[in-house]
Protein backbone atom coordinates (compact mmCIF):
# COMPACT_ATOMS: atom_id res chain seq x y z
CA UNK A 1 0.00 0.00 0.00
CA UNK A 2 2.77 2.38 0.99
CA UNK A 3 6.43 2.10 0.04
CA UNK A 4 9.21 4.44 1.03
CA UNK A 5 12.41 3.83 -0.86
CA UNK A 6 15.74 5.48 0.04
CA UNK A 7 13.98 8.54 1.41
CA UNK A 8 16.15 11.32 2.80
CA UNK A 9 14.95 14.58 4.27
CA UNK A 10 16.90 17.68 5.17
CA UNK A 11 16.13 20.66 7.37
CA UNK A 12 18.35 23.23 5.74
CA UNK A 13 21.76 21.56 5.74
CA UNK A 14 20.95 19.12 8.50
CA UNK A 15 19.95 15.69 7.33
CA UNK A 16 17.09 14.32 9.41
CA UNK A 17 16.33 11.12 7.49
CA UNK A 18 18.96 8.85 5.95
CA UNK A 19 17.86 6.52 3.14
CA UNK A 20 14.77 5.27 4.86
CA UNK A 21 13.12 2.15 3.45
CA UNK A 22 9.75 1.22 4.80
CA UNK A 23 6.61 -0.59 3.76
CA UNK A 24 3.05 -0.66 5.02
CA UNK A 25 0.81 -3.39 3.61
CA UNK A 26 -2.94 -3.19 3.39
CA UNK A 27 -4.76 -4.09 6.62
CA UNK A 28 -1.63 -4.00 8.76
CA UNK A 29 -0.80 -2.09 11.89
CA UNK A 30 2.80 -0.99 11.47
CA UNK A 31 4.60 0.82 14.21
CA UNK A 32 7.67 3.00 14.23
CA UNK A 33 9.46 3.29 17.53
CA UNK A 34 12.53 5.18 18.59
CA UNK A 35 13.87 7.70 21.05
CA UNK A 36 13.08 11.38 21.17
CA UNK A 37 14.61 13.16 18.20
CA UNK A 38 15.27 9.98 16.23
CA UNK A 39 13.29 11.36 13.28
CA UNK A 40 9.96 9.55 13.71
CA UNK A 41 7.80 12.62 13.31
CA UNK A 42 9.97 13.84 10.44
CA UNK A 43 9.39 10.55 8.66
CA UNK A 44 5.65 10.87 9.10
CA UNK A 45 5.60 14.49 8.00
CA UNK A 46 7.78 13.72 4.97
CA UNK A 47 5.14 11.22 3.97
CA UNK A 48 2.62 14.11 4.17
CA UNK A 49 4.83 16.30 2.00
CA UNK A 50 5.91 18.78 4.67
CA UNK A 51 8.93 18.87 4.67
CA UNK A 52 9.50 17.48 1.19
CA UNK A 53 11.77 14.49 0.78
CA UNK A 54 15.06 15.58 -0.78
CA UNK A 55 15.71 12.23 -2.43
CA UNK A 56 14.00 8.89 -2.74
CA UNK A 57 10.55 7.74 -3.63
CA UNK A 58 7.31 7.44 -1.69
CA UNK A 59 4.60 5.45 -3.42
CA UNK A 60 1.05 5.12 -2.17
CA UNK A 61 -1.30 2.79 -4.06
CA UNK A 62 0.95 3.15 -7.10
CA UNK A 63 1.07 6.97 -7.03
CA UNK A 64 4.31 8.82 -6.47
CA UNK A 65 3.78 11.24 -3.56
CA UNK A 66 7.10 13.06 -3.51
CA UNK A 67 6.16 15.71 -6.08
CA UNK A 68 2.72 16.41 -4.63
CA UNK A 69 1.62 19.16 -2.27
CA UNK A 70 0.46 18.32 1.24
CA UNK A 71 -3.14 19.12 0.32
CA UNK A 72 -3.02 16.72 -2.64
CA UNK A 73 -1.49 13.91 -0.59
CA UNK A 74 -3.96 14.28 2.27
CA UNK A 75 -6.90 13.96 -0.13
CA UNK A 76 -5.77 10.45 -1.13
CA UNK A 77 -7.63 8.59 1.63
CA UNK A 78 -4.78 9.37 4.00
CA UNK A 79 -5.51 11.01 7.34
CA UNK A 80 -3.23 12.00 10.18
CA UNK A 81 -3.56 12.40 13.92
CA UNK A 82 -0.58 14.68 14.43
CA UNK A 83 1.75 15.02 17.34
CA UNK A 84 0.18 17.15 20.05
CA UNK A 85 -3.35 16.48 18.71
CA UNK A 86 -3.75 19.94 17.14
CA UNK A 87 -7.51 20.12 17.43
CA UNK A 88 -8.96 23.52 16.56
CA UNK A 89 -9.52 24.71 20.11
CA UNK A 90 -11.78 27.65 19.26
CA UNK A 91 -14.01 25.52 17.04
CA UNK A 92 -16.69 23.28 18.48
CA UNK A 93 -16.44 19.50 18.43
CA UNK A 94 -19.00 19.48 15.63
CA UNK A 95 -16.98 21.98 13.58
CA UNK A 96 -13.73 20.10 14.18
CA UNK A 97 -15.31 16.91 12.91
CA UNK A 98 -16.77 18.59 9.85
CA UNK A 99 -13.34 20.04 9.04
CA UNK A 100 -12.14 16.44 8.86
CA UNK A 101 -14.83 15.66 6.29
CA UNK A 102 -14.22 18.80 4.24
CA UNK A 103 -14.19 16.97 0.93
CA UNK A 104 -16.61 14.16 1.74
CA UNK A 105 -20.07 14.14 0.20
CA UNK A 106 -23.07 14.51 2.47
CA UNK A 107 -23.79 10.80 2.69
CA UNK A 108 -20.23 9.75 3.60
CA UNK A 109 -20.09 12.58 6.08
CA UNK A 110 -23.21 11.33 7.87
CA UNK A 111 -22.04 7.72 7.90
CA UNK A 112 -18.61 8.66 9.23
CA UNK A 113 -20.14 10.98 11.82
CA UNK A 114 -22.28 8.14 13.14
CA UNK A 115 -19.25 5.84 13.20
CA UNK A 116 -17.12 8.37 15.06
CA UNK A 117 -19.81 9.21 17.60
CA UNK A 118 -20.42 5.51 18.26
CA UNK A 119 -16.69 4.97 18.69
CA UNK A 120 -16.38 7.99 20.99
CA UNK A 121 -19.69 8.58 22.83
CA UNK A 122 -17.88 11.26 24.81
CA UNK A 123 -17.72 13.45 21.72
CA UNK A 124 -21.49 13.26 21.40
CA UNK A 125 -21.85 14.63 24.94
CA UNK A 126 -19.51 17.46 24.10
CA UNK A 127 -20.81 18.07 20.60
CA UNK A 128 -21.44 21.82 20.84
CA UNK A 129 -18.53 22.51 23.17
CA UNK A 130 -15.35 24.25 22.08
CA UNK A 131 -12.54 21.76 21.69
CA UNK A 132 -10.20 23.85 23.83
CA UNK A 133 -12.37 23.32 26.88
CA UNK A 134 -11.98 19.53 26.82
CA UNK A 135 -9.49 17.34 28.62
CA UNK A 136 -6.39 15.99 26.90
CA UNK A 137 -7.92 12.53 26.48
CA UNK A 138 -11.07 13.97 24.96
CA UNK A 139 -9.02 16.11 22.61
CA UNK A 140 -7.10 13.03 21.50
CA UNK A 141 -10.40 11.28 20.79
CA UNK A 142 -11.49 14.32 18.81
CA UNK A 143 -8.23 14.33 16.85
CA UNK A 144 -8.73 10.66 15.96
CA UNK A 145 -12.41 11.28 15.20
CA UNK A 146 -11.53 14.19 12.93
CA UNK A 147 -9.06 12.01 11.03
CA UNK A 148 -11.68 9.26 10.60
CA UNK A 149 -14.25 11.70 9.20
CA UNK A 150 -12.59 11.59 5.78
CA UNK A 151 -13.01 7.77 5.69
CA UNK A 152 -9.28 7.14 5.38
CA UNK A 153 -7.81 3.86 4.24
CA UNK A 154 -4.45 4.73 5.75
CA UNK A 155 -4.41 6.32 9.17
CA UNK A 156 -1.22 7.92 10.47
CA UNK A 157 -0.94 8.32 14.22
CA UNK A 158 1.83 10.32 15.84
CA UNK A 159 2.24 9.48 19.53
CA UNK A 160 -1.44 9.23 20.36
CA UNK A 161 -0.62 8.13 23.92
CA UNK A 162 1.54 11.13 24.77
CA UNK A 163 0.57 12.84 28.00
CA UNK A 164 -2.49 10.71 28.65
CA UNK A 165 -3.52 8.71 31.71
CA UNK A 166 -2.88 4.93 31.43
CA UNK A 167 -6.59 4.12 31.34
CA UNK A 168 -7.12 6.52 28.41
CA UNK A 169 -4.07 5.12 26.63
CA UNK A 170 -5.60 1.64 26.90
CA UNK A 171 -8.83 2.98 25.37
CA UNK A 172 -6.93 4.59 22.50
CA UNK A 173 -5.06 1.36 21.74
CA UNK A 174 -8.34 -0.59 21.88
CA UNK A 175 -9.79 1.83 19.34
CA UNK A 176 -6.80 1.33 17.02
CA UNK A 177 -7.38 -2.43 17.17
CA UNK A 178 -11.07 -1.88 16.36
CA UNK A 179 -10.14 0.32 13.39
CA UNK A 180 -7.96 -2.42 11.97
CA UNK A 181 -10.89 -4.80 12.17
CA UNK A 182 -12.90 -2.28 10.16
CA UNK A 183 -10.24 -2.46 7.45
CA UNK A 184 -8.24 0.68 8.17
CA UNK A 185 -4.49 0.36 7.72
CA UNK A 186 -2.61 1.99 10.58
CA UNK A 187 0.86 3.46 10.73
CA UNK A 188 1.62 4.21 14.35
CA UNK A 189 4.53 6.27 15.62
CA UNK A 190 5.09 5.69 19.31
CA UNK A 191 7.49 6.17 22.18
CA UNK A 192 5.34 3.85 24.23
CA UNK A 193 7.15 0.91 22.59
CA UNK A 194 5.77 -1.84 24.77
CA UNK A 195 2.12 -1.24 23.95
CA UNK A 196 2.76 -0.29 20.35
CA UNK A 197 4.70 -3.51 19.62
CA UNK A 198 2.08 -5.68 21.32
CA UNK A 199 -0.53 -4.24 19.00
CA UNK A 200 1.50 -4.07 15.80
CA UNK A 201 1.92 -6.69 13.11
CA UNK A 202 5.30 -5.31 12.20
CA UNK A 203 7.58 -2.67 13.59
CA UNK A 204 10.52 -0.51 12.61
CA UNK A 205 13.10 0.89 15.01
CA UNK A 206 14.59 4.26 14.24
CA UNK A 207 17.82 5.79 15.52
CA UNK A 208 19.40 9.06 14.42
CA UNK A 209 17.41 9.22 11.21
CA UNK A 210 18.19 5.62 10.19
CA UNK A 211 15.93 2.59 10.27
CA UNK A 212 18.07 0.15 12.26
CA UNK A 213 15.70 -2.78 12.76
CA UNK A 214 12.67 -4.24 11.08
CA UNK A 215 10.70 -7.24 12.28
CA UNK A 216 7.33 -8.48 13.46
CA UNK A 217 5.94 -6.83 16.59
CA UNK A 218 6.42 -10.01 18.61
CA UNK A 219 10.01 -10.52 17.52
CA UNK A 220 10.92 -6.93 18.33
CA UNK A 221 9.32 -7.28 21.76
CA UNK A 222 11.55 -10.30 22.39
CA UNK A 223 14.68 -8.75 20.88
CA UNK A 224 17.19 -8.13 23.68
CA UNK A 225 18.59 -4.95 22.06
CA UNK A 226 15.12 -3.48 21.74
CA UNK A 227 14.26 -4.52 25.28
CA UNK A 228 17.35 -2.85 26.60
CA UNK A 229 16.97 0.38 24.66
CA UNK A 230 13.22 0.94 24.67
CA UNK A 231 11.51 -1.36 27.13
CA UNK A 232 13.58 -0.76 30.26
CA UNK A 233 15.65 -3.98 30.09
CA UNK B 1 -39.69 71.08 27.75
CA UNK B 2 -37.23 71.72 24.97
CA UNK B 3 -33.99 69.87 25.10
CA UNK B 4 -30.86 71.97 25.40
CA UNK B 5 -28.89 72.79 22.31
CA UNK B 6 -25.82 71.07 23.64
CA UNK B 7 -27.57 67.73 23.54
CA UNK B 8 -28.34 68.05 19.83
CA UNK B 9 -24.77 69.09 19.27
CA UNK B 10 -23.59 65.92 20.98
CA UNK B 11 -26.03 63.77 18.97
CA UNK B 12 -24.69 65.33 15.78
CA UNK B 13 -21.09 64.54 16.73
CA UNK B 14 -22.01 60.99 17.60
CA UNK B 15 -23.79 60.50 14.28
CA UNK B 16 -20.82 61.88 12.37
CA UNK B 17 -18.44 59.73 14.39
CA UNK B 18 -20.42 56.54 13.88
CA UNK B 19 -20.60 57.23 10.15
CA UNK B 20 -16.87 57.53 9.69
CA UNK B 21 -16.31 54.81 12.29
CA UNK B 22 -18.36 52.25 10.42
CA UNK B 23 -16.27 52.77 7.30
CA UNK B 24 -13.10 52.42 9.38
CA UNK B 25 -14.54 49.16 10.62
CA UNK B 26 -15.09 47.93 7.06
CA UNK B 27 -11.48 48.62 6.15
CA UNK B 28 -10.18 47.31 9.48
CA UNK B 29 -11.74 43.89 8.84
CA UNK B 30 -9.36 43.43 5.91
CA UNK B 31 -6.35 44.02 8.15
CA UNK B 32 -7.63 41.83 10.92
CA UNK B 33 -8.62 38.86 8.75
CA UNK B 34 -5.29 38.74 6.95
CA UNK B 35 -3.43 39.12 10.23
CA UNK B 36 -5.58 36.42 11.81
CA UNK B 37 -4.49 33.89 9.22
CA UNK B 38 -0.92 34.67 8.23
CA UNK B 39 0.11 36.93 11.11
CA UNK B 40 1.16 39.72 8.76
CA UNK B 41 -0.13 43.23 8.14
CA UNK B 42 -1.21 44.01 4.59
CA UNK B 43 0.17 47.51 4.24
CA UNK B 44 -1.21 47.87 0.73
CA UNK B 45 -4.74 47.59 2.07
CA UNK B 46 -5.32 51.36 2.31
CA UNK B 47 -4.59 51.69 -1.40
CA UNK B 48 -7.23 49.08 -2.17
CA UNK B 49 -9.73 51.34 -0.42
CA UNK B 50 -8.54 54.29 -2.52
CA UNK B 51 -8.84 52.26 -5.72
CA UNK B 52 -12.36 51.30 -4.65
CA UNK B 53 -13.25 55.00 -4.52
CA UNK B 54 -11.76 55.63 -7.97
CA UNK B 55 -13.56 52.70 -9.57
CA UNK B 56 -16.83 54.01 -8.14
CA UNK B 57 -16.11 57.42 -9.63
CA UNK B 58 -15.24 55.95 -13.01
CA UNK B 59 -18.36 53.78 -13.06
CA UNK B 60 -20.63 56.69 -12.14
CA UNK B 61 -18.99 58.96 -14.70
CA UNK B 62 -19.23 56.30 -17.39
CA UNK B 63 -22.90 55.63 -16.69
CA UNK B 64 -23.63 59.35 -16.76
CA UNK B 65 -21.87 59.55 -20.13
CA UNK B 66 -24.17 56.89 -21.52
CA UNK B 67 -27.13 58.86 -20.23
CA UNK B 68 -28.02 56.60 -17.35
CA UNK B 69 -29.03 58.98 -14.59
CA UNK B 70 -30.94 56.70 -12.24
CA UNK B 71 -29.29 57.09 -8.83
CA UNK B 72 -30.06 53.56 -7.52
CA UNK B 73 -28.65 52.01 -10.71
CA UNK B 74 -25.51 54.11 -10.44
CA UNK B 75 -24.95 53.27 -6.80
CA UNK B 76 -25.54 49.55 -7.21
CA UNK B 77 -23.27 49.45 -10.26
CA UNK B 78 -20.59 51.41 -8.41
CA UNK B 79 -20.62 48.94 -5.52
CA UNK B 80 -20.70 45.83 -7.69
CA UNK B 81 -17.97 46.82 -10.14
CA UNK B 82 -15.78 48.40 -7.50
CA UNK B 83 -15.94 45.27 -5.35
CA UNK B 84 -15.13 43.04 -8.32
CA UNK B 85 -12.14 45.08 -9.46
CA UNK B 86 -10.68 45.48 -5.97
CA UNK B 87 -11.12 41.74 -5.36
CA UNK B 88 -8.80 41.20 -8.30
CA UNK B 89 -6.39 43.70 -6.74
CA UNK B 90 -6.56 41.92 -3.38
CA UNK B 91 -5.86 38.59 -5.03
CA UNK B 92 -2.94 40.02 -7.01
CA UNK B 93 -1.42 41.67 -3.95
CA UNK B 94 -1.38 38.31 -2.23
CA UNK B 95 0.08 36.52 -5.23
CA UNK B 96 2.75 39.11 -5.99
CA UNK B 97 3.74 40.63 -2.66
CA UNK B 98 3.01 37.88 -0.13
CA UNK B 99 2.90 34.32 -1.41
CA UNK B 100 6.40 34.17 -2.92
CA UNK B 101 7.85 35.53 0.33
CA UNK B 102 5.92 33.52 2.83
CA UNK B 103 7.89 31.27 5.14
CA UNK B 104 10.87 33.57 5.26
CA UNK B 105 11.62 36.47 7.54
CA UNK B 106 8.42 38.31 8.45
CA UNK B 107 9.96 41.70 7.70
CA UNK B 108 10.37 40.90 4.02
CA UNK B 109 6.66 40.73 3.06
CA UNK B 110 6.15 43.86 5.13
CA UNK B 111 8.59 45.72 2.93
CA UNK B 112 7.15 44.27 -0.26
CA UNK B 113 3.66 45.34 0.87
CA UNK B 114 4.87 48.89 1.42
CA UNK B 115 6.41 48.75 -2.05
CA UNK B 116 3.10 47.52 -3.41
CA UNK B 117 1.37 50.41 -1.66
CA UNK B 118 3.68 52.97 -3.28
CA UNK B 119 3.26 51.29 -6.64
CA UNK B 120 -0.55 51.33 -6.48
CA UNK B 121 -0.65 54.93 -5.32
CA UNK B 122 1.50 56.04 -8.22
CA UNK B 123 -0.34 53.85 -10.68
CA UNK B 124 -3.55 55.73 -9.86
CA UNK B 125 -1.68 59.03 -9.85
CA UNK B 126 -0.40 58.45 -13.38
CA UNK B 127 -3.68 57.07 -14.68
CA UNK B 128 -6.05 59.55 -13.04
CA UNK B 129 -3.90 62.54 -12.13
CA UNK B 130 -2.95 63.59 -8.65
CA UNK B 131 -5.49 66.36 -8.24
CA UNK B 132 -8.67 66.11 -6.23
CA UNK B 133 -11.59 64.68 -8.12
CA UNK B 134 -15.10 65.69 -7.09
CA UNK B 135 -17.59 62.87 -6.78
CA UNK B 136 -21.02 64.00 -7.93
CA UNK B 137 -23.48 64.46 -5.11
CA UNK B 138 -26.17 61.91 -5.73
CA UNK B 139 -27.91 61.79 -2.41
CA UNK B 140 -28.71 64.92 -0.49
CA UNK B 141 -31.04 65.88 2.32
CA UNK B 142 -31.81 64.09 5.54
CA UNK B 143 -33.99 64.12 8.61
CA UNK B 144 -33.75 66.72 11.32
CA UNK B 145 -33.67 65.64 14.91
CA UNK B 146 -34.91 68.35 17.26
CA UNK B 147 -36.67 71.69 16.89
CA UNK B 148 -36.94 73.13 13.38
CA UNK B 149 -36.53 76.72 14.50
CA UNK B 150 -33.53 76.25 16.80
CA UNK B 151 -30.31 74.24 16.69
CA UNK B 152 -30.89 70.63 15.70
CA UNK B 153 -29.02 67.54 14.65
CA UNK B 154 -29.31 66.19 11.10
CA UNK B 155 -29.10 62.58 10.04
CA UNK B 156 -28.43 62.78 6.33
CA UNK B 157 -29.72 60.16 3.90
CA UNK B 158 -26.11 59.47 2.94
CA UNK B 159 -25.32 58.66 6.56
CA UNK B 160 -28.31 56.34 6.70
CA UNK B 161 -27.05 54.56 3.60
CA UNK B 162 -23.63 54.19 5.21
CA UNK B 163 -25.14 52.66 8.35
CA UNK B 164 -27.42 50.37 6.38
CA UNK B 165 -24.75 49.15 3.95
CA UNK B 166 -22.25 48.60 6.76
CA UNK B 167 -24.80 46.67 8.79
CA UNK B 168 -25.78 44.47 5.85
CA UNK B 169 -22.14 43.82 4.91
CA UNK B 170 -21.19 42.93 8.48
CA UNK B 171 -24.19 40.61 8.83
CA UNK B 172 -23.32 38.80 5.60
CA UNK B 173 -19.68 38.48 6.65
CA UNK B 174 -20.62 37.15 10.08
CA UNK B 175 -22.94 34.57 8.53
CA UNK B 176 -20.24 33.55 6.07
CA UNK B 177 -17.59 33.15 8.75
CA UNK B 178 -19.76 31.37 11.30
CA UNK B 179 -21.97 29.19 9.10
CA UNK B 180 -20.40 28.42 5.74
CA UNK B 181 -17.96 25.65 4.95
CA UNK B 182 -15.32 28.07 3.65
CA UNK B 183 -15.87 30.34 6.65
CA UNK B 184 -15.14 27.41 8.91
CA UNK B 185 -12.00 26.70 6.91
CA UNK B 186 -10.97 30.34 7.41
CA UNK B 187 -11.34 29.99 11.16
CA UNK B 188 -9.47 26.69 11.15
CA UNK B 189 -6.64 28.32 9.16
CA UNK B 190 -6.52 31.23 11.59
CA UNK B 191 -5.96 28.77 14.37
CA UNK B 192 -3.61 26.26 12.82
CA UNK B 193 -2.63 26.72 9.19
CA UNK B 194 -0.49 23.60 9.04
CA UNK B 195 -3.12 21.32 10.52
CA UNK B 196 -5.74 22.66 8.13
CA UNK B 197 -3.35 21.84 5.31
CA UNK B 198 -2.97 18.31 6.73
CA UNK B 199 -6.73 17.87 6.33
CA UNK B 200 -6.24 18.19 2.57
CA UNK B 201 -7.38 21.80 2.38
CA UNK B 202 -5.54 24.09 -0.01
CA UNK B 203 -4.55 26.74 2.52
CA UNK B 204 -3.11 29.00 -0.19
CA UNK B 205 -6.61 29.35 -1.60
CA UNK B 206 -8.02 30.18 1.83
CA UNK B 207 -5.35 32.85 2.34
CA UNK B 208 -6.11 34.33 -1.08
CA UNK B 209 -9.79 34.33 -0.18
CA UNK B 210 -9.19 36.43 2.93
CA UNK B 211 -7.30 39.00 0.83
CA UNK B 212 -10.20 39.06 -1.63
CA UNK B 213 -12.86 39.46 1.07
CA UNK B 214 -10.83 42.20 2.76
CA UNK B 215 -10.39 44.02 -0.55
CA UNK B 216 -14.11 43.83 -1.36
CA UNK B 217 -14.98 45.27 2.05
CA UNK B 218 -12.44 48.06 1.58
CA UNK B 219 -14.12 48.83 -1.74
CA UNK B 220 -17.48 49.13 0.01
CA UNK B 221 -15.88 51.65 2.37
CA UNK B 222 -14.23 53.42 -0.56
CA UNK B 223 -17.54 53.87 -2.42
CA UNK B 224 -19.33 55.03 0.72
CA UNK B 225 -16.70 57.49 1.93
CA UNK B 226 -16.10 58.78 -1.60
CA UNK B 227 -19.76 59.71 -1.86
CA UNK B 228 -19.88 61.01 1.72
CA UNK B 229 -16.88 63.32 1.49
CA UNK B 230 -17.38 64.08 -2.20
CA UNK B 231 -13.67 64.39 -2.90
CA UNK B 232 -11.09 61.74 -3.74
CA UNK B 233 -7.40 61.78 -4.63
CA UNK B 234 -4.67 59.12 -4.91
CA UNK B 235 -3.44 59.81 -1.37
CA UNK B 236 -6.59 59.14 0.63
CA UNK B 237 -5.60 55.50 1.05
CA UNK B 238 -2.67 56.29 3.30
CA UNK B 239 -4.55 58.01 6.10
CA UNK B 240 -7.61 55.78 5.82
CA UNK B 241 -5.37 52.72 5.95
CA UNK B 242 -3.53 54.05 8.98
CA UNK B 243 -6.79 54.83 10.76
CA UNK B 244 -8.30 51.45 9.95
CA UNK B 245 -5.12 49.71 11.04
CA UNK B 246 -5.32 51.65 14.30
CA UNK B 247 -8.96 50.56 14.65
CA UNK B 248 -7.97 46.92 14.12
CA UNK B 249 -5.21 47.12 16.73
CA UNK B 250 -7.47 49.01 19.11
CA UNK B 251 -10.14 46.34 18.96
CA UNK B 252 -7.64 43.50 19.06
CA UNK B 253 -6.01 42.48 15.80
CA UNK B 254 -7.21 39.12 14.56
CA UNK B 255 -10.69 39.64 15.99
CA UNK B 256 -13.50 40.66 13.60
CA UNK B 257 -15.86 42.01 16.30
CA UNK B 258 -12.79 43.81 17.64
CA UNK B 259 -12.24 45.54 14.30
CA UNK B 260 -15.84 46.74 14.27
CA UNK B 261 -15.68 47.98 17.84
CA UNK B 262 -12.30 49.62 17.26
CA UNK B 263 -13.56 51.35 14.12
CA UNK B 264 -16.64 52.78 15.80
CA UNK B 265 -14.70 53.84 18.88
CA UNK B 266 -12.07 55.56 16.78
CA UNK B 267 -14.68 57.33 14.65
CA UNK B 268 -16.59 58.63 17.66
CA UNK B 269 -13.41 59.70 19.45
CA UNK B 270 -12.37 61.69 16.40
CA UNK B 271 -15.74 63.33 15.98
CA UNK B 272 -15.99 64.28 19.65
CA UNK B 273 -12.48 65.75 19.59
CA UNK B 274 -13.19 67.67 16.41
CA UNK B 275 -16.53 68.88 17.76
CA UNK B 276 -15.43 69.97 21.23
CA UNK B 277 -11.78 70.82 20.92
CA UNK B 278 -10.33 71.31 17.51
CA UNK B 279 -10.27 69.45 14.20
CA UNK B 280 -6.48 69.70 14.12
CA UNK B 281 -6.24 67.58 17.24
CA UNK B 282 -8.49 64.71 16.19
CA UNK B 283 -5.64 62.58 14.83
CA UNK B 284 -3.55 63.29 17.91
CA UNK B 285 -6.33 62.08 20.16
CA UNK B 286 -7.08 59.08 17.95
CA UNK B 287 -3.50 57.83 17.95
CA UNK B 288 -3.10 58.84 21.61
CA UNK B 289 -6.01 56.54 22.39
CA UNK B 290 -4.18 53.76 20.59
CA UNK B 291 -1.09 54.30 22.70
CA UNK B 292 -3.14 54.27 25.90
CA UNK B 293 -4.96 51.06 25.01
CA UNK B 294 -1.72 49.36 23.99
CA UNK B 295 -0.12 50.37 27.29
CA UNK B 296 -2.87 48.89 29.41
CA UNK B 297 -4.21 46.16 27.14
CA UNK B 298 -1.51 45.22 24.65
CA UNK B 299 -3.71 42.71 22.84
CA UNK B 300 -6.48 45.25 22.21
CA UNK B 301 -9.98 45.47 23.62
CA UNK B 302 -11.29 42.14 22.36
CA UNK B 303 -7.99 40.53 21.41
CA UNK B 304 -6.58 37.39 22.89
CA UNK B 305 -3.10 37.55 24.31
CA UNK B 306 -0.70 35.80 21.95
CA UNK B 307 0.06 32.44 23.48
CA UNK B 308 3.11 30.54 22.35
CA UNK B 309 2.02 27.16 21.09
CA UNK B 310 3.81 24.23 22.64
From TrEMBL, chain A:
- Which residue ranges does the record assign to the ABC transporter domain? 2-233
Top-level taxonomic group: Bacteria
Record-annotated membrane-spanning stretches:
none
The residues forming a coiled coil are none
Instruction: List, alphabetically, the Pfam families matched.
Output: ABC_tran (PF00005)
Record-level Gene Ontology MF annotations: ATP binding; ATP hydrolysis activity; branched-chain amino acid transmembrane transporter activity
Q: What is this protein called?
A: High-affinity branched-chain amino acid transport ATP-binding protein
Source organism of the structure: Halopseudomonas aestusnigri
Q: What taxonomic lineage is listed for the species of origin?
A: Bacteria, Pseudomonadati, Pseudomonadota, Gammaproteobacteria, Pseudomonadales
TrEMBL record, chain B:
Give one Pfam hit by family name. BPD_transp_2
Give the transmembrane region(s).
20-41, 48-68, 74-93, 105-124, 157-177, 205-229, 284-303
Mind telling me which CDD domains this protein's record contains? TM_PBP1_LivH_like
UniProt keyword Nucleotidyltransferase present? no
Q: Where in the cell is it found?
A: Cell inner membrane
Report the GO molecular function annotations: L-isoleucine transmembrane transporter activity; L-leucine transmembrane transporter activity; L-phenylalanine transmembrane transporter activity; L-valine transmembrane transporter activity
Q: How is it placed in the membrane, per its record? A: Multi-pass membrane protein
Primary location: membrane
Got a GO cellular component term for this one? plasma membrane
GO annotation terms (biological process): D-alanine transmembrane transport; L-alanine transport; L-isoleucine import across plasma membrane
The residues forming a coiled coil are: none
Name the UniProt key words of this record, in alphabetical order.
Answer: Amino-acid transport, Cell inner membrane, Cell membrane, Membrane, Transmembrane, Transmembrane helix, Transport
Q: Which NCBIfam families does the record match to this protein?
A: PRK10740.1
Q: Which family does it belong to?
A: Belongs to the binding-protein-dependent transport system permease family. LivHM subfamily.
Protein name, as recorded? Branched-chain amino acid transport system permease protein
Which organism's genome codes for this protein?
A: Halopseudomonas aestusnigri
Amino acid sequence: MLYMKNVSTHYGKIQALHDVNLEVRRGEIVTLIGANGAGKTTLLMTLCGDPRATTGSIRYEGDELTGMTTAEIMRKDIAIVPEGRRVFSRLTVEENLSMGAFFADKETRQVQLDTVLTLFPRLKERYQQRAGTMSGGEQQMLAIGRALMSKPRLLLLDEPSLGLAPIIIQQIFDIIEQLRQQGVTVFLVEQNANQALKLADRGYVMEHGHIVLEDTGEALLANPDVRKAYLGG
Amino acid sequence: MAMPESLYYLIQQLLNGLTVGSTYALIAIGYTMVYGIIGMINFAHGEVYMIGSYIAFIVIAALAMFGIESVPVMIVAAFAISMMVTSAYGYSIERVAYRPLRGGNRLIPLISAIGMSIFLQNLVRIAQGSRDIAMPTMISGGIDIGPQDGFHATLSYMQMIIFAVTLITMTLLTLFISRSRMGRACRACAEDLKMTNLLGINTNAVIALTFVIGAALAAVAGVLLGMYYGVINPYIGFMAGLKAFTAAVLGGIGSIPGAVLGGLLLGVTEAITAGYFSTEYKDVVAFGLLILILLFRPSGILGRPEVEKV
